[in-house]
Amino acid sequence: MEAIILQILNGLDKGSAYALIALGLTLIFGTLGVVNFAHGALFMIGAFCAVTLSRILTASYTVIDESQTDFLGNPLKVDMPYVHDWFGQATGDAIIDWAVPLSILFAIPVMMLIGVIMERGLIKHFYNRPHADQILVTFGLAIVLQEVIKYYYGANPIPTPAPEAFDGSFDFGAMLGFDPNMIIYPYWRIIYFVFAAIIIGGVFAFLQFTTFGMVVRAGMADRDTVKLLGINIDRRFTIMFGLAAAVAGLAGVMYTPINSPNYHMGMDFLVLSFVVVVVGGMGSLPGAVLAGFLLGILESFASMGAVLEILPGLNQIIIYLVAIIILLTRPRGLMGRKGVMED
Amino acid sequence: MSKSNFTRRGLLKTGAVTGAGLALPTYLAAQESYLNAPTGASVTLGFNVPQSGPYADEGADELRAYELAVEHLNGTGADNGMLETFSSKALEGNGILGKEVKYVTGDTQTKSDAARASAKSMIEKDGAIMITGGSSSGVAVAVQALCQEAGVIFMAGLTHSNDTTGKDRKANGFRHFFNSYMSGAALAPVLAANYGTDRKAYHLTADYNWGYTTEEAVRASTEAMGWETVAAVKTPLTQTDFSSYIAPVLQSGADTLVLNHYGGNMVNSLTNAVQFGLRDKQVNGKDFQIVVPLYSRLMAKGAGANVKGIFGSTNWHWSLQDDASKAFVKSFGTKYGFPPSQAAHTCYVQAILYADAVQRAGSFAPCAVVEALEGFEFDGMGNGPTLYRAEDHQCFKDVLVVKGKENPTSEFDLLEIVEVTPMEQVMYAPDHPQMGGADASLGSCNNGA
To answer: What is the pLDDT of residue B4?
Structure first.
């Protein structure tokens, strides 16, 4: 029982990341009809927004400490962060410690801008081209973006920890009456899940309860009619692309304490997220969220020792197995619109 | 009517010239009957390192070390690095056998097929006489087999799997880096001394060749000390989030987690394990502990503060205080501004050892180099007295047991040396079961001609 609860918890935070990326993917497909293989790169760039802000906050000047030596035996150069001078040692350390949450504010405008530039500069030229062309150009763009990041930040993962206040894990087992330490879960992963729920809820509310969202939904249903009404739907779709980029970026920012970011992390998530979108139904926002959590939980269960003893290797194929079954039995996905992916 | 020009004198002259002409290639072939024999004033070495992909930073450090070695071999560097401390004095700082050392580079991408393609290109197109480098055992085994077939020497870079000089050993291949068996043999006594002999270990193992040999070695050596292995779970090499593998660890009753992971896998699994708060827990009345059998400073940097207090092993570390290590750190640090990694060290040493073997053999012929390296005992290269064992072409030397430093003074100061395990403690028989048993064989050296 403890193992099952634990894997459900695991699945929820894994599913949160899948859902956030898949949400943006399906939003872009639903609005612009573009299959965006650069979406994983947006997740990665979001993570590097956190790395960048962390570096900005720790920007330092050097002082020579004659009492210590460096590896060559020269007097040690000690980095002194500017924030210590500006805000004092304690406040400065607290600001540096909270770099990841602060990066949310930094990443939103940056990611929206990147999204809009990407859409206006490249992707709009491929609206009327076959999906194969869109996949090729966006995949190429993803590789370019990751190589740019690798050039500036290197190939090694860069540790970007959560604030110290969130170190450690919460003992769900003790709360539910099980033995202590049987069901523990890191605080930051719980926060990631809550954060994902807020973002997903926010996007749905934005589309459901605002005039802008209503127009976008109308455009998704019948773009030509909305245009005939004199509404500049293209501009709204561009903004939606920026919004989708911001959602992917925020997913990346909050993911940095879970796994140290590296230039390749977007690719690691990209294929899985596409499977999530296909299983959920191309263009279906609720489908993306549902499939994200569903596949996250299934993947976690498939990684259990007891399961692997009976079916070795299941953890590596479970998601694709589900995708095959869904595509065979319900090509439009769990919550896809009739006709999409069925012709 | 035709007039014949045949005379006795003319026949003799023609015969002598023809004979000499026919004999010359035979004479040359006898002297230089091996692939890519250098004919001009220079000799070309092939540095096959990951220049792209996840180990690109490690590859860049390997390349820096090779460039430094070339400077030292040619006598064009600011100093002579470890040539000053190396026990063999055959090298004179004027290249190898008087030929200037030039090099070409290839990108392994840490993929076996790409590494073989780049090595093949350097051998066939650039005329490289020796291939060296790499950051993965899969790559090392693949390139070593290629070099054996082609008939050039392979001086392995960073490769830790037993198989490289175990079941997949080759006559043309040599490894300076230590291996999984040695890690286990060096770590186990330190773990027993620090954590006791009554421990329950849970292994997470990367699902590929290196992971298997490391798990096997650490299990064997820790179980011999009294530890019990409660579970060993394979994790996909492509895994990035290890939460679903780490979460069940405490439920298993284990009080120690062994992460048989390297590179990005190690960074992520260790980060995840620390996030789960495993090290804050008490199990079986003991503090929960994590062990990382193979440490790399470059990788430890990726894991940040999570490495603090965690034991592992390493081939070499820049903080060693012997004259050779200090000379290398000074040379490398002055040129590049930061201390060398263990990958840089092993690659530098391999390049120098190859050059020295050629110099001592008086020939670039691979079989002559093999003969010069087999059983070669040396010192002054940073690891103390070292033996290149003839039976498997594995270097035997002291092994470092290290621990993540609690209070690092710089971004390079991440590991502290806990113990220098003597060579005798990590020695094993050439036909040891973990090394392929009695069936493992070097085969014959190949000159490639």
So the answer is: 45
Average pLDDT over residues B369-374: 98
Closest CA to B206 of B136, B140, B107, B125: B136
Residue among B233, B330, B338 minimizing CB distance to A305 = B233
Tens digit of pLDDT for each residue in B3-31?
444 455 554 454 444 544 444 444 344 44
Contact state of A186 with B277 under an 8 Å Cβ cutoff: yes
Domains of chain B by start residue, with CATH: 3-178+318-397 (3.40.50.2300), 181-314 (3.40.50.2300)
Any A CB within 8 A of B51 CB: no
| Mean pLDDT calculated for residue range B248-261 | 91
Q: Which residue, B91, B151, B124, is CA-closest to B356? A: B91
Mean pLDDT of A56-73: 90
Interface of A with B in 188-207 (CB under 8 A): 188-189
The β-bridge partners of B257 are: B202, B290
Q: Is A232's pLDDT higher than 70?
A: yes
Partners of residue B338 in chain A, C-beta under 8 Å:
71
Of A156, A167, A181, the CB nearest to B298: A156
pLDDT digits (tens, 9 = 90+) for B173-219: 999 999 999 999 999 999 999 999 999 999 999 988 899 999 999 99
Does position B153 have pLDDT exceeding 70, yes or no? yes
pLDDT top residue among B275 and B399: B399
Q: Say how far apart CA A104 and CA A167 lie, in whole Å.
A: 19
Pick from A10, A76, A167: which is nearest to B247 by CB? Answer: A10
Checking if the pLDDT of A342 tops 80, the result is no
What is the per-residue DSSP string for A117-170? HHHHHTGGGGTTS-HHHHHHHHHHHHHHHHHHHHHHH-SS----PPPGGG-SEE
pLDDT computed for residue B379 by the predictor: 97
Give the closest-approach CA distance of A13 to chain B in angstroms: 10
What would the pLDDT profile of B79-113 be if each residue is shown by its tens digit? Answer: 999 999 999 999 999 999 999 999 999 999 889 99
The per-residue pLDDT for B21 is 47
Residue of chain A nearest B271, judged by CA positions? A259
CB nearest B409 (choices: A76, A159, A315): A76
Looking at beta carbons, which residues of chain A come within 8 Å of B281?
A: 181, 184
The Cα–Cα gap between B161 and B105 comes to 24
A162-171, Cβ contacts within 8 angstroms, sequence gap of 24 or more: A162/A100, A162/A187, A162/A188, A162/A191, A162/A257, A163/A97, A163/A98, A163/A100, A163/A101, A164/A97, A166/A191, A166/A257, A167/B277, A168/B277, A168/B280, A169/B275, A169/B276, A169/B277
Which of A144, A54, A130 is CA-nearest to residue A99? A54
A181/B283 touch (CB, cutoff 8 Å), yes or no? yes
A55 inside 8 A of chain B by CB? no
The answer to whether A69 contacts chain B (CB < 8 Å) is no
A315 touches chain B (CB under 8 A): yes
Q: Which two tokens stand for residue A297?
A: 């939980």
Contact A159 B231 (CB under 8 A): no
Nearest CA-CA partner of A44 in A243, A246, A252: A252
The answer to whether B368 touches B361, Cβ cutoff 8 Å, is yes
Per-residue model confidence (pLDDT) at position A131: 84
